């Protein structure tokens, strides 16, 4: 066992042990609202939304770049994915995500992902025209990620993602960088048991800059005017650590069920407990369901999360060619209050390895 493999084994064991003894409510809700870049917590992918994000230990290669980048090492040759999300339907917010995972050797893979948030036309208001001045502006939020994953053995996989974060509104913008890292462990007679640990959104603080922080002022004697610029306070990114497990059950010939569980320790809000399951028939038809739990989510007065917990989804997958290539179409829904839930639809093409 080489030194790199030993390092990943020790890291996995240490992180697993820490998470096992982590207090049940170790999140920090008192810091809620004090972080920025919260779009980094929005899951833009259809399959994982169908199980409330509980499949961190066993996501597809393209979705692994959001869930746990180590899973990208399982791409056979090439995988391309796209998802459109009507985020919190009725809010006029949409999310478009596209990703590519590509094997570059016997044990390595690289990936590229883009998530773009759209907010529609927003009415411009001022202190003089609080009901709007008749003009509109747009916001732009963009996350771009470059990932690398590697298989260190038949059981241990690791990966890292570098993300560029861009936010802009009218004459104000903020740019930054963040890092994700993940480890995945596979075991069992049929590789049916999977564990994953992921550290996400770690990076330097960000701040806003631009003409939107400037204003016109007048000297005390009104003899002349001048332009002043406010300073933007730095804000931290919503870092988190998650641990997950999954198990594949063979119910009968052509009938399979995968159970998922994930615990997320958030730095700026309550911790999350996610459970989900995926049933598939002949790896052609899929049914998904999941539940997101955190303290207070069942009580309207105490809930601090827009989702109410329930998630569901379905999909169809077809094989083509001689290399076990697949194409799939999936749909997912998550219940929310307020708004009318989040609806996702996505497509994926997975090209098998040439024989």
Query: CATH homologous superfamily name?
Result: Outer membrane protein transport protein (OMPP1/FadL/TodX)
**H/E order of the elements?**
HHHEEEEEEEEEEEEEEEEEE
Tally of strands: 18
From the N-terminal CA to the C-terminal CA, the straight-line distance is 29 Å
Describe it:
A hairpin with a 5-residue loop joins strand 8 and strand 9. The chain is built from three helices and 18 strands. The protein has a single domain, classed as Porin (Beta Barrel), CATH 2.40.160.60. A 14-stranded antiparallel barrel has the order 1-2-3-6-7-8-9-12-13-14-15-16-17-18. It has helices spanning about 5-20, 45-50, 60-65, and strands spanning about 80-85, 95-105, 110-120, 120-125, 135, 140-150, 155-170, 170-185, 195-200, 215-220, 225-230, 240-250, 255-265, 270-280, 285-295, 305-320, 325-335, 340-350. Helices cover about 10% and strands about 50% of the residues. The radius of gyration is 22 Å and the shape is elongated. The chain is mainly beta and about 350 residues long.
